[in-house]
Amino acid sequence: MWQPLRRALYRFYAGRLHAQLRDMAMPRHVAMVMDGNRRWARQMGFDDPRIGHRYGAEHLDEVLGWCAEAGIRHVTVFLASADNMRKRDPDEVDHLMQMIETVVAQRLSRQTSLWQLHLAGRLEVLPDSTRHALKLAQEETRSRNAEFHLTVAIGYDGREEIVSAVRCLLEEEARSGATLDDVAQRLSADAIAAYLYTGGQPDPDLVIRTSGERRMSGFLLWQAAYSELHFCDVYWPGFRKIDFMRALRSYASRQRRFGA
C-alpha cells in the first residue's frame, strides 16, 4: 500500500524540482566526491562492505546521464586519493581497482557513451591492469567528437598536483634557457594552472560531496577556489536524482562572488 504512494510522491516532487530548474542557471562543470560506498553497504545489510564499491561504480553511469540531461558538459569525479592507495587495506584497494577496470573503464569505452575520458592523478601508483584499462579507455574516447567530458581523479592529491604543476613549469622554462629570475618575473596563476592535471578545462562551478562529510579531502584545491560547495547526507550509491536536482537548485539560488 505504502510503496505505490511513496513512488507517486517521489515522481510528483521530482517533477516539481525539474520545473523549478527549467529557467535556472546550470553549472557548466560539476565535480563530485563519491563518498560513502562502504557505509551504504553496511546500512543495506551486506556482509562484505566492499560490495558498495560495485554499486558506487555502477551508479556513476546513472549520474552521468542526469548531468547530460541537464546540459552539464564537464564532470570530474573523485574515485580514489593517493592516501587511499597507500593507507587502505590492500584487499579493499584491489577490489576497488577491479570495479574501476570492469565497470568504469569498460562502460566509458562503449561506442554509445557520450563522454570523453580525462585522467587526473598519479597513475604510476595504480596497479598495472588498472592503469592500462583507464589509459585504453582514454585513448578510445579521445577520437570521439564528444561534447561531454569526464575527468576521473584517481591516485589524486590536490597538494601534489600543485607541486607537480610548478615543477613542470620550472622544467619547461629551464629547457628554454630562462633563468629563475625570469620565471619569477613572469609567474602567474594562469601559468601554473596550465600545468595542472586539468589544464585547459574549466574550473568546477559546483562541488558535491555525498555521505554527510563536510570537507574537501584535498580534492581540486586549486580549481575549486571559487566553486560553490554542496554537502549531501546520503551515501553515494543512494544518491538519488532528486538529491542531484536539489544540489542544482541550491547552486542556482546562490549569488556567486568569485572571491569578492
Structure in a nutshell:
The protein is an alpha/beta fold and 260 residues long. Helix content is 50%, strand content 14%.
What is the H-and-E element order? HEHHEHHEHEHHHEEH
Strand order of the largest sheet: 3-4-2-1-5-6
Domains (count): 1
Low-confidence stretches: none
Sketch the major β-sheet: 6 strands, parallel
CATH topology: Undecaprenyl pyrophosphate synthetase
- State the fourth-level CATH superfamily: Decaprenyl diphosphate synthase-like
Q: Can you tell me the CATH class?
A: Alpha Beta
SS element count, helices: 10
What would the principal axes of the Cα set say about the shape? globular
Rg estimate, integer Å: 20 Å
Can you give the mean pLDDT? 92
What is the percent of helical residues? 40-55%
Number of strands: 6
Structural class: alpha/beta
Distance between the termini: 53 Å
* Percent of residues in beta strands: 5-15%
- In oligomeric terms, what are we looking at? single chain
CATH architecture: 3-Layer(aba) Sandwich
Family: Belongs to the UPP synthase family. Z-FPP synthase subfamily.
GO cellular component, one term: plasma membrane
Active site: 35, 84 (proton acceptor)
Cofactor: Mg(2+)
